[in-house]
Amino acid sequence: MTDEAQLKALMVKGLGGDTVAHGRLLSHLSRCLRGYFARRLGSGAADLEDLVQDTLLAIHLKRASYDTAQPFTPWAYAVARYKLIDHYRRSGARKAVPLEEAGVLLAQDDVEEGAVRRDLGKLLNTLPERQRQVMIEVKLAGHSVEEAARRSGMSVSAVKVAIHRGIKALGKRVRDED
């Protein structure tokens, strides 16, 4: 069972008190989460099973925060992503990837893509309109700074400053949320 509709149905039934459905959901999620964490940490990682269990526990404990009007898998993978980030922080691991390559990393799993796009959209929407537009054009769409300057009516220097400030502001917001 990997279908979003089936997983969501199990979650909704579990929220309604169906313990069998909730157990089936957690059982299926444990297999999905092992794969998710194994792709990021390596299949022989010592902490892999601990991360799976921590994530399942968090999903169980935070299940009331799930909005049934939204898809389920992005919510579940967001919980897993936060648990992985916590793991990296505790272990002191640092993963540096240029922003230009972030799209490739974030598109590794289709089930995560929706959550990532939604989170990125929310973050970008916190920026002023012109700053958001040049960030999208240069960092996400791959246009040159010169093209973004021409389209926005800004100078090349102003676009560079806007992008720098935008990245700095987004980084601060992410750190503040954690």
UniProtKB/TrEMBL annotation:
<keyword id="KW-0804">Transcription</keyword>
<dbReference type="InterPro" id="IPR013325">
    <property type="entry name" value="RNA_pol_sigma_r2"/>
</dbReference>
<dbReference type="GO" id="GO:0006352">
    <property type="term" value="P:DNA-templated transcription initiation"/>
</dbReference>
<dbReference type="InterPro" id="IPR014284">
    <property type="entry name" value="RNA_pol_sigma-70_dom"/>
</dbReference>
<dbReference type="Pfam" id="PF04542">
    <property type="entry name" value="Sigma70_r2"/>
</dbReference>
<feature type="domain" description="RNA polymerase sigma-70 region 2">
    <location>
        <begin position="33"/>
        <end position="92"/>
    </location>
</feature>
<dbReference type="InterPro" id="IPR013324">
    <property type="entry name" value="RNA_pol_sigma_r3/r4-like"/>
</dbReference>
<dbReference type="InterPro" id="IPR036388">
    <property type="entry name" value="WH-like_DNA-bd_sf"/>
</dbReference>
<dbReference type="InterPro" id="IPR013249">
    <property type="entry name" value="RNA_pol_sigma70_r4_t2"/>
</dbReference>
<dbReference type="GO" id="GO:0003677">
    <property type="term" value="F:DNA binding"/>
</dbReference>
<keyword id="KW-0238">DNA-binding</keyword>
<dbReference type="GO" id="GO:0016987">
    <property type="term" value="F:sigma factor activity"/>
</dbReference>
<dbReference type="InterPro" id="IPR007627">
    <property type="entry name" value="RNA_pol_sigma70_r2"/>
</dbReference>
<keyword id="KW-0805">Transcription regulation</keyword>
<dbReference type="InterPro" id="IPR039425">
    <property type="entry name" value="RNA_pol_sigma-70-like"/>
</dbReference>
<comment type="similarity">
    <text>Belongs to the sigma-70 factor family. ECF subfamily.</text>
</comment>
<feature type="domain" description="RNA polymerase sigma factor 70 region 4 type 2">
    <location>
        <begin position="118"/>
        <end position="170"/>
    </location>
</feature>
<protein>
    <submittedName>
        <fullName>Sigma-70 family RNA polymerase sigma factor</fullName>
    </submittedName>
</protein>
<dbReference type="Pfam" id="PF08281">
    <property type="entry name" value="Sigma70_r4_2"/>
</dbReference>
<keyword id="KW-0731">Sigma factor</keyword>
